[in-house]
Amino acid sequence: MGRAAKFVASLLPLFLAGCATVQSTSNAHGPAAHSIARLSSALTITFVITILIMWALLAIALKKNRGSLKEHMPIDVGGGQAWVAIGGIAIPFLVLSVFFFLGLDLLTTFPIHGDHGAMNMGAAAAKSKPDILIIGHQWWWEVHYLGAANQQVITANEIHIPAHRPVNIELRSADVIHSFWVPSLHGKVDLIPGDVNFIRIEASQPGDYVGQCAEYCGSQHANMHILLVAQEPAAFNQWLANQARPGVEPTNPETMQGQQAFLDGPCTKCHTVRGTAAAGRFGPDLTHIGSRKEIGADSFPNNDGYLEGWITNAQSLKPGCKMPKITQYNGTQLRSLVAYLRQLQ
Amino acid sequence: MSGNPAAGKALIQSYGCGSCHVIPGIRTARGMVGPPLFYYSRRTIIAGELPNTPDNLVRWIENPPAIEPGTAMPNLGVTDSQAHDIAAYLYTLR
Question: Do A303 and B72 touch (CB under 8 A)?
Fold first, then answer.
């Protein structure tokens, strides 16, 4: 392989990393994303054609060469007002008007609104009862399922939704401004401290969709990933029912020792495992951590190796993140702790 | 050494060795939990107790707690052929 080919090959994993779908606006898998993709390709094509026309006109003007400075001939600068009026004002007015109304149409079809908006927006917000509440944190996503009153389902970073139907999401922030963006499904919407935003998303087919925070929010902003899993409704309901259960109780000596290490250690100050005394709310809910595909806001695969490295020294994997170095466990305790967390399916 | 270093490199990434070790040649391997694996082929002792021979390295990768019960290095379920591949990669670190 040549150097250039090697370079290109080394970039490939960046685009193919981890998940099933490419994180791109042009890879649309839902009605909102399709509209955005259509509008942006229409814009791109229109502007490319416009530029080609402008270059052609420039070439004609250069070729026409009305007089020459060398020959001291008078240069003809008269005429051309019609070109400016039609090409510079009338046509751009028409083209931009068309895109303006196409853009407005997109906004009304896929409402993105907050309670700070105009009155009719506030009414729309009240009508669309949210199914999911997402709270942005530095640098992870807290996810509440609001469906049934008797269910308490809180998870993090891996957001499951039923496919084929719209899902209303309420967006809040616990600290700074974040922005929720899964490019294959919808446009960006900010999570603003002290305010509420809403977004309606729909996945046209089941699959894993990747996204990330789209508003700079601090040192680990670039690693604040989103994994959105759209499932067939039956599979989603099954998933939700499992997530509503308390954490799986350990059954063998190793996982029992791990649970003891978990409950005796500092973990419970920040993390919750429902069904145990661990009720910290600063970090992600770990009740079903074993069921998640990734850890560290979807930065690393969820396996024994990455999980143990993350627990003991998350700072070396995501410098500046809020998870401190944990130095009080010995090797045996660490391995059992990982075994306990992994069985929290 | 019978393993395939390129396969070993991919296995190191998927098992997450780099979440605890700094490993040359692997961009994401920047863990600060266990020792960095610089110049691995030149090391003489594994885990502070075993001579660094290919057989011992493979045994250690496959099941560290079997050799040193108190170690934090987990048994990741690495198969024998995978352990050979990983060892082959580590021995490219001269």
Answer: no
Rounded (10°) CA dihedral A191, A27, A30, A205: -120
- How high is the ipTM of this complex? 0.91
Q: Which of A174, A182, A291 is nearest to A242 (CA)?
A: A291
A140: enclosing H helix or E strand: strand A140-145
Phi then psi for residue B67, to 5 deg, are -90, -40
Two tokens at B78? 């690495």
* pTM, full prediction: 0.85
Q: Do B20 and A338 touch (CB under 8 A)?
A: no
Q: Are strands A140-145 and A132-137 parallel, antiparallel or unpaired?
A: antiparallel
User: b/e string for A102-124 if b means 16 or more Cβ within 10 A?
Assistant: eeeebeeebbbbbeebeeebeeb
| Chain A hits for B14, Cβ within 8 Å | 301, 303
C-alpha atoms less than 13 angstroms from C-alpha of A283 in its C-beta half-sphere: 20
State the Cα–Cα distance between residues B40 and B9, nearest whole angstrom.
Answer: 14
Among candidates B31, B70, B74 on the partner chain, residue whose Cβ is nearest the Cβ of A313: B31
Out of A55-59, A107-111, A119-123, A195-199, give the one with best mean pLDDT: A55-59
Instruction: Give the one of A309, A312, A331 whose C-beta lies nearest to B71's C-beta.
Output: A331
Number of separate helices (H) and strands (E) present in chain A: 9, 13
**Domain B5-90 CATH class label:** mainly beta
What residue type is A54 in one-letter code? Answer: M
Q: Encode pLDDT of A107-148 as tens digits.
A: 776 666 655 444 445 455 555 678 999 999 999 999 999 876
A334 vs B contacts (CB less than 8 Å) = 72, 74
**Pair of tokens at residue A81:** 């007002």
Domain ranges of chain B: 5-90
For A139, which DSSP code?
A: T
